[in-house]
Write a structure and sequence with these properties.
single chain; 4 helices; NADH Oxidase; about 25% strand; alpha+beta; globular
Length: about 180
């Protein structure tokens, strides 16, 4: 799909079909890998698919699937297991949370950000999250998937489930899946 068309098709979706990424199916695995690469993958060893302030690359993507939670390893374009618990429903209170194929939690390692005030750190991590989130929106529009980014997230509880350190902060979570009725 041309970029202009993807921009025109981009929208937030809040109703999802109960379909999941089949991790044993090559097509679904490739779709998930392509989604994560488009979101925050490596274009080269020093450059990613989205910008980050001073190229700090402080954001990690935690992918919540029915099979468990995983952290995205962009250099290898693969997922590393964090837990085998299905934490999708734990990522928010909206009625569609936990019904979509995946929830992607944006986690910023604030220890990587130096030389900024507390406010500057907050501005940086949310701006960088926004760049990555928009890549997900455009990918989903191009591939016929639904998505919505959410701020209503029980960040402390989800962070504990994911084993995050005090320097790691969840900024937002983005729901991804097949649109209901499609």
């Amino acid at each position: 799909m041309p970029l202009r068309d993807a921009i025109g098709a981009r929208r937030s979706v809040r109703q999802y079909a109960p379909r999941r990424f089949d991790l044993t199916d090559g097509k679904d695995l490739q779709l998930l890998a392509d989604l994560l690469w488009a979101a925050w993958g490596h274009v080269s060893p020093k450059r990613r698919t989205a910008p980050s302030s001073h190229n700090r690359q402080e954001t990690e993507l935690y992918v919540l699937l029915p099979e468990g939670a995983f952290v995205y390893e962009p250099a290898e374009n693969r997922l590393a297991a964090v837990t085998d618990l299905d934490l999708r429903a734990a990522s928010g209170a909206q009625d569609y949370v936990g019904t979509a194929a995946a929830e992607i939690a944006f986690v910023a390692d604030t220890a990587k950000i130096t030389g900024k005030t507390s406010r500057g750190i907050i501005e940086t991590i949310y701006a960088d999250t926004g760049f990555i989130s928009q890549n997900i929106y455009l990918f989903c529009a191009a591939e016929g998937l639904g998505t919505v980014v959410r701020a209503m997230v029980p960040k402390e509880a989800l962070g504990e489930e994911l084993g995050l350190t005090p320097a790691q902060e969840i900024t937002l979570v983005q729901t991804v899946g097949w649109k209901s009725g499609e």
